[in-house]
Specification:
Blueprint (H helix, E strand, L loop, with lengths): L1 E11 L4 E12 L4 E5 L6 H8 L7 E6 L2 E2 L5 H11 E5 L10 H10 L5 H14 L15 H13 L5 E5 L7 H18 L2 E5 L3 H4 L4 E6 L2 E2 L2
Parallel strand pairs: 3-8, 3-9, 6-7, 7-8
Antiparallel strand pairs: 1-2, 1-4, 4-5, 9-10
Helix pairs in contact: 3-4, 3-5, 4-5, 5-6
């Protein structure tokens, strides 16, 4: 599903050059649930951004379903992200002025989908994460765990084949964190969704099929 070959990422300014990733060769199979671990600043989020086509590598190749995407233009990349990839972030990234259901609908707007169909899919996604009674609420009326459930509903509303989750439980207590992990496990096991999750929590990582460990921008296991 995702293939990275010889990936390096270097950030340059006028005075300094920082290597965030070096010599990453990584395959993520269809239907796999993978966690990425390592100390802060080791390149985990950079790796996820490259997998999600939000950033481009300095060197190396990125393939999604065996298609080389390095030379895709911005419009083509945006379309591929919208159709194939769902994102879950630690900080939720919900729009406070929009209701829960309107937040979940957002990715579908770019598919030029009729309003009625968008609403049906958004309500179905909220049902799946246990928030069917909160559709008219606003993000600031919800707990942290509920807001992360909204973020997951938004990520899955377009039925993506890949979900990339960057510390999805990082702002939650252990009980809420385990509930969010159970939702990700359900998506993986029942729908076969390919999931790559960055986490600092060993207790969550051991629930995944494979743990990728980074140190100083290099893959160590």
């Amino acid at each position: 599903m995702i293939s990275l070959k010889g990936i390096e990422k270097v950030y340059r300014t006028d005075k300094i050059e920082t290597t965030a990733l070096r010599n990453i060769d990584l395959e993520v199979a269809q239907g796999e649930l993978v966690s990425v671990m390592g100390p802060s600043g080791c390149g985990k989020s950079t790796l996820l951004n490259i997998m999600g086509l939000l950033d481009k590598p300095t060197h190396g190749e990125v393939l999604i379903e065996n298609a080389l995407v390095n030379n895709y233009g911005d419009i083509r990349l945006a379309k591929l992200r919208n159709q194939k990839i769902g994102f879950i972030f630690q900080s939720f990234h919900l729009i406070n002025d929009l209701s829960v259901v309107d937040n979940v609908e957002l990715p579908l707007i770019y598919r030029l989908m009729p309003n009625k169909k968008r609403r049906e899919l958004a309500l179905a996604a909220l049902e799946r994460v246990g928030l069917s009674t909160r559709t008219r609420h606003f993000p600031n009326q919800l707990s942290g765990g509920q807001r992360q459930r909204v973020a997951i509903a938004r990520a899955i509303v377009g039925n993506p084949e890949i979900i990339l989750a960057d510390e999805p439980t990082g702002n939650l207590d252990s009980v809420m964190g385990n509930e969010i992990m159970d939702i990700l496990l359900m998506l993986n096991q029942e729908q076969g969704t390919t999931i790559v999750m960055v986490t600092h929590d060993e207790h969550l990582a051991i629930k995944t099929q494979r743990v990728i460990r980074l140190f100083d921008g290099a893959q160590v296991s």
